[in-house]
Amino acid sequence: MKNGIVILLLLTIISCNDGNKNQKYSEEIVKKIDTTHFKFKGFNVGSKLDLLSNGNFYYENYWYGCMGGGENKKVYGIFHIEDKKLKLKPDSINLATLPFTRHNNPLIQTFKYGADSLKIKTEYDLINWGDNAYLLSSVKDDPIFIDLEPENDFQRFAYYYNYGLEPKQHGEYLFYEKKTQSDSLNMKLNLKEIPIEWRNLFLEKPASAKALKTGKKDENLNKIIIKNQ
């Protein structure tokens, strides 16, 4: 309960969850547990992290192939928040592997947490921006395409911020968002929220572009000058 109170004081964004956590609690008990829900959702891929007021967490990561196949990984454990630092202590994993043959049933396995291939990020910084809140990790992810450099959450968040996409749009990192973004949209991000080692990635103002000259269509290139607003 102590962790739940800390989240409430930091975010004031507690919502109610009527779901069931790992089938360990009866429906009546779960209804009394407050949950803070962070998520990322892309095309056939996504993640979500639920922080429960009883000190437990539920993490889910999934991907699905357009032609079939996929994986759904669910991780359970406890968490701790102190000085806007979130630490997860995973305990168990439920892994569902979907076959490419759609008619076959998924293979569901349960493991004790620890295998390198199934590990998740366990340390995050909590970043507040108006109505939004972000959980950003300094751990780099391996890129999908081999010609790209590994990136962490701060690098991806800086990219979206510098191009003026945040807080309207979100990249591949966990975030909490109220139904209305009016507060965040009209509020400047306090860069002191960002750990000092990553602060140099962020521009004081989002970048803007202006076309000075448009060449012929067959040149396929416009002369663009990028400048700060």
Number of helices: 4
Number of strands: 12
Mass-distribution shape: globular
Distance between the termini: 45 Å
Main sheet specs: 10 strands, antiparallel
Low-confidence stretches: 1-30, 218-229
Radius of gyration: 20 Å
Helix vs. strand class: mainly beta
Beta-strand percent range = 35-45%
Q: Mean pLDDT across all residues, rounded?
A: 78
Q: Specify the helix fraction band.
A: 10-25%
H/E element order: HEHEEEEEEEEHEHEE
Give an overview in words:
- The chain is about 10% helix and about 40% strand.
- The termini are far apart.
- The chain is mainly β and about 230 residues long.
- Strands 1, 2, 3, 4, 5, 6, 7, 8, 9 and 10 form a 10-stranded antiparallel sheet that branches. Strands 11-12 form a two-stranded antiparallel ribbon.
- The radius of gyration is 20 Å and the shape is globular.
- Mean pLDDT is about 80; it is low at about 1-30 and about 220-229.
Task: Give structural attributes.
229 residues; mainly beta; 10-stranded antiparallel β-sheet; two-stranded antiparallel sheet; 4 helices; 39% strand; disordered N terminus; disordered C terminus
Q: What can be said about this structure in brief?
A:
With 229 residues, the protein is mainly beta. The protein is built from four helices and twelve strands, in the order αβαββββββββαβαββ.
Secondary structure layout plus pairing:
Layout: H1 2-11, E1 15-16, H2 27-30, E2 34-41, E3 45-52, E4 56-64, E5 70-82, E6 85-98, E7 107-112, E8 123-129, E9 132-136, H3 153-162, E10 174-176, H4 182-185, E11 207-214, E12 222-228
Antiparallel strand pairs: 1-2, 2-3, 3-4, 4-5, 5-6, 6-7, 6-8, 8-9, 9-10, 11-12
